[in-house]
Amino acid sequence: MIPGFANRRKFRDLSEQDILALAISSEEDDARIYRSYAEMLRADYPASAAIFDGMAIEEDGHRRQLIDLHVVRFGDVIPLIRREHVSGFYARRPVWLIENLGLDRIRDEASQMERDAERFYTIAATLSADATTRKLLGDLAAAEASHAVRADDLATAHLGADAKTSEDSAAERQFLLTWVQPGLAGLMDGSVSTLAPIFAVAFATQDTWTTFLVGLAASVGAGISMGFTEAASDDGQISGRGSPIKRGIAAGVMTTLGGLGHALPYLIVDFWTATTIALIVVFVELWAIAWIQNRYMQTPFLRAAFQVVVGGALVFAAGAIIGSG
Question: What is the pLDDT of residues 99-111, one digit of tens each?
Answer without folding.
Answer: 555 677 777 778 7
